[in-house]
């Protein structure tokens, strides 16, 4: 049974120098003139300018580990669309890479680890990396992005989101050695040797908390925990091997920096059935995938958390009229209430036509203003 941390004291102050603070206010369930929108993977392969920058960098890791390139691609979607937040360009696997597991990306195959964690000896060797020594390129990128978002008068365009994978999701990649269709190796360890899995998760939780705190200290104004593979777990196993460790991370995070509130979002893909429990971990907002009815989720969550989501990413392959219709359906489901950040139910597909994203962003901003005008 997880402790109910939802009643932690809230610091209502958001960054005073922001030209657009709508995203942060929505996360804190404060009134906004419209529903803010950003997209998971908004800087990525669907944008031709991203592909051009990645080509110059030579590889994905060459892109992610160079603060100049990371800054460039972080800002690219903001130049195209009036999005309400920027998200640090990086990867969820930076922590296990910093642990020395030998991360590489093969074309068409996704991430691979040269040294997966499979044996007692492998687990015993795991240690929390020195964040400054091994992941300084990430915090350097956070600082550089903040500078790039700030104009000559010291006003910042939009807030910057930092992020990490969850302890469980990182463990999936670390044990499987890459992506997986059935998670056979990591789930076999979970059931056969839960002691080893607990040790991996303990190290990961300490590392994730330290990593997110370093991003906050460098200038991230909100942070997100991506529990991409939490939904692969059975009920009971999810609470023990994923959610409990997310709560452990959240309890260690800096929730205020420079006198300003730093909201925390968590997203478990396939985790809608556990919304009530996720909302009790102490996070400020819960991300939802497209299988969840947003109106019912709002009623269940009550005033504990804001909600983020939850358009099916494949809607963006439809006609402009259909995209706008589906955007309105999501907004209508949530209603004219505070505490909604519009997003996709998962990351944007690399095959998405960029012009369709423009239709979505425009409709979310336009229609949500009308909802609030009627509800006022």
TrEMBL record:
Q: Which Gene3D superfamilies match?
A: 3.20.20.210
> Sorted alphabetically, which Pfam families does this protein's record hold?
URO-D
Pathway named in the protein's UniProt entry: Porphyrin-containing compound metabolism; protoporphyrin-IX biosynthesis; coproporphyrinogen-III from 5-aminolevulinate: step 4/4
This protein's GO cellular component annotations are: cytosol
Residue ranges annotated for the Uroporphyrinogen decarboxylase (URO-D) domain, each copy included:
36-45, 161-177
Give the principal location in a single coarse category.
cytoplasm
Q: Give compartment(s).
A: Cytoplasm
Which residues carry the site feature described as Transition state stabilizer? 91
Role of this protein: Catalyzes the decarboxylation of four acetate groups of uroporphyrinogen-III to yield coproporphyrinogen-III.
Please report the name of this protein according to its UniProt entry: Uroporphyrinogen decarboxylase
Source organism per entry reads: Paraburkholderia lycopersici
The protein's gene is named hemE
């Amino acid at each position: 049974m997880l402790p109910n941390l939802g009643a932690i004291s809230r610091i209502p102050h958001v960054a005073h120098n922001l030209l657009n603070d709508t995203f942060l206010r929505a996360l804190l369930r404060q009134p906004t003139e419209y529903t803010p929108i950003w997209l998971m993977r908004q800087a990525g392969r669907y944008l031709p300018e991203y592909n051009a920058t990645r080509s110059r960098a030579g590889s994905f890791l060459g892109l992610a580990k160079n603060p100049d390139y990371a800054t460039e691609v972080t800002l690219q979607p903001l130049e195209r669309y009036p999005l309400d937040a920027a998200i640090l360009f990086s990867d969820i696997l930076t922590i296990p890479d910093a642990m020395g597991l030998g991360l590489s990306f093969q074309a068409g195959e996704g991430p691979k680890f040269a040294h997966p964690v499979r044996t007692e000896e492998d687990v015993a060797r795991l240690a929390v990396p020195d964040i400054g020594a091994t992941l300084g390129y990430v915090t350097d990128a956070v600082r550089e992005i903040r500078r790039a978002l700030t104009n000559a008068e010291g006003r910042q365009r939009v807030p910057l989101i930092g992020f990490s994978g969850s302890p469980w999701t990182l463990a999936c990649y670390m044990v499987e050695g890459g992506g997986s269709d059935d998670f056979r190796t990591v789930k076999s360890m979970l059931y056969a040797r839960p002691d080893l899995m607990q040790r991996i998760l303990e190290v990961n939780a300490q590392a994730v908390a330290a990593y997110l705190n370093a991003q906050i200290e460098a200038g991230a104004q909100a942070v997100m925990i991506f529990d991409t593979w939490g939904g692969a777990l059975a009920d009971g196993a999810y609470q023990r091997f994923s959610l409990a460790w997310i709560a452990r991370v959240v309890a260690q995070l800096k929730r205020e920096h420079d006198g300003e509130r730093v909201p925390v979002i968590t997203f478990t893909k396939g985790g809608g059935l556990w919304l009530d429990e996720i909302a009790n971990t102490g996070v400020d907002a819960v991300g939802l995938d497209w299988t969840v009815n947003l109106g019912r989720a709002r009623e269940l969550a009550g005033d504990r958390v804001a909600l983020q989501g939850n358009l099916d990413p494949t809607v963006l392959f439809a006609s402009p009229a259909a995209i706008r219709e589906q955007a309105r359906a999501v907004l209508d489901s949530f209603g004219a209430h505070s505490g909604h950040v519009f997003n996709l139910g998962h990351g944007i597909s690399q095959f998405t036509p960029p012009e369709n994203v423009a239709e979505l962003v425009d409709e979310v901003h336009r229609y949500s203003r009308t909802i609030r005008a009627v509800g006022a």
